[in-house]
Amino acid sequence: MHLAVIATLILSLFTNPVSGSFSDTFADPSVIRGQDGYWYSYGTSDPLREGEKVLHRLPIARSADLVNWTYVGDAFGPDNLPSYAAPGSLFWAPDIRYLDGRYVMYFTVTDTATTPANWDYSIGAATAPTPTGPWTHIDAPVVAPRPSGGSYWNTIDPSQFTDVDGRKYLYFGGFFGGLWVTELSADGLRAVGQPQQVAIDNKFEGAYVVRHNGYYYLLGSSANCCAGPTTGYSVLAGRSTSPRGPFTDREGVPLLASRAGGTPVLDQNGNRFIGTGHHAQLTDLSGQDWMLYHAIDRNDPFLDEPYGINERPMLLDRLDWIDGWPAVRAGAGPSERSRETPVTRGVVDDRFAGDLSGWRNPAGWTVQDGHVRGQGTLISRRSLGGDVRVETDLKTDRSAGIRIGGTTAVVSRDGLTLTSGGTSRTVALPGGAATWHNLAVTVKGRTITAEVTEARLRDPQASVTVTGSAHGPIGLVSDGGADFDNVSAAPLFKAVTKAAPTPRTGRLLDADEFDGPPDSRWTWVRQDAAAKVEEGVLRWPVQGADLVGTGNKASVLLREAPEGDYVVETKVTLDLGEDSVRNYQQAGLVAYASDDDFARLSQVAIWNTRQVEYGRELAFAGRLSYGGNIVGPPARTTWLRLAHHVDPVNGEHEFRAGSSRDGKTWTWGGVWTFPKDTAVRIGLVAHGGAQPAVNADFDYVHVYRGA
């Protein structure tokens, strides 16, 4: 291999977190590519560095390559705050968009001056001519505080979306109240109509919606964002044929159901990063999708002192689409060091900061104010064949677009027209392109697709596909009155279509079918005499006790675990009903080192929801820490698995959780770890509340060799 190629490959490697160059924490990141060709990311208001102690009000970072970032300032200074924000209000979870020629930032205001209450959340907005400001606040909340009894719903975590018909929507909400969508006014600055709930409460926050292959995907973060070393945050998805839902997961389970659905997109995988969530998405110049998100280093979970601000740096990883569903690194989860980087420079790549020496036919074209303007056809002197992605930012009040050989994609008052050979198709482009828009053309074999977006954030306002041939010179076409910038052409990404491996079962090592009383392989911690084998099941009345915290009154039924990799499975029937509050009745599997050091996988009632929670308790900095990770939706009868793997590098015990509603189709969630020398046993639990009385019926426990 040529030395220059080797050097390029070495330089292309990057290490997570990508925010480490400018901050120790950068939570809830959003991202956009500015008209200047740089990428900008925005984070929740926190100190950036250990010891700083001063909050940055929505800090902003800039990058040319999405890997190396530089802090460029805060969105809001002390003299530029919303008039409706109460003194001391915090600003969380910004969402950045480019709408109708200006940048619009949505954000959470934690305390609103219009009510006397604290934590009366609302959604604010501010506009700016550039990605770094100056920001002008809208004079009233986009979504005002929403009272609920003596408190207020979580009106937090905004995310904007523009549909193909030009309608604008805002998604928002959190655990207390669920996720909602409201339509916005044409300028995107006011909520109109009646909001509609799209995901159940007590499970989701951090909504983000994208459109892909005709579906609308609602991605939300689940479990807890901020439990230090036991943070189990993850990203789950549902999809719909409408931006208003109903959204269902891969198994067809609604996100609004009490036994709430959600297909895993991103989960912790046993490396040092836990609590992976609250993300934003982007597409690089090759067409590959990427996800920016925050996570917690389990070895350094707090910014300064333990149990203070959770340290949540920003990570970057590839986002794949597997069988129609998004999955970070095809389901492999967060990377510590990546062998691939986003494509942020094309073979053809011009930001028009100089002359037109890289182009043919420059007559009638001029570079001014950092972009090119002209009439006719401007042809690049560089070319590339095969499958490609060509894109440009443009604005025109007439007709302009991209040419690839004899194929053209043109934006005009009539819409977006894609022509190849003798085939031509036109689709509407609501509002036209009188302000800056992005036009992207992808060529994959004989399939040619053109899309128009305002800011390349997976919300195409026009999309059209034809079958044809697009090979030859790459150029810009205009009949006058058009401006172009950020022109690129790059080889089209090679899609990953095969999911990352998930745990499988090998030969059966051990089993108890509960045909008789638990034998000598089982031992009790605090024996429960009410648990009995009858009718071929271990029938265990759910106890009014728990393991979490220092009380430790719940019983645990344990057996020794085999050496090496194995999978333990049980089938548990637990009739928790639906919708009603039955906190926190549960039953399932446990990986147990002690009462204060365990990982518990249970079907559980969490307020009005029924979830499969994979919780972890451990001692940290003189206190007990507990947090949960969410796996698949439960049924009345749910199959549960814990897959154990020994890390060959550090010897840690890794336990990955899986659940199934039929014993055949498995959903795999996150990983909790135990240190190398920990003696971990496996077993069963049934606790969390004795009222109303309910039995957990365990049909069997099987232990398999891991495969």
UniProtKB/TrEMBL annotation:
Gene3D superfamilies: 2.60.120.200, Exo-inulinase, domain 1, Glycosyl hydrolase domain, family 43
Coiled-coil residues: none
Alphabetical list of Pfam families matching this protein: GH43_C2, Glyco_hydro_43
Domain Beta-xylosidase C-terminal Concanavalin A-like: 512-702
InterPro entries in UniProt: ConA-like_dom_sf, GH43_C2, Glyco_hydro_43, Glyco_hydro_beta-prop_sf, Glycosyl_Hydrlase_43
Alphabetized CDD domains for the sequence: GH43_ABN-like (cd18616)
Record's signal peptide: 1-20
Keyword Lipid biosynthesis: no
Alphabetic keyword roster: Glycosidase, Hydrolase, Signal
Calcium as UniProt keyword: no
Family: Belongs to the glycosyl hydrolase 43 family.
Protein name: Beta-xylosidase C-terminal Concanavalin A-like domain-containing protein
Species in which this protein is naturally found: Nonomuraea angiospora
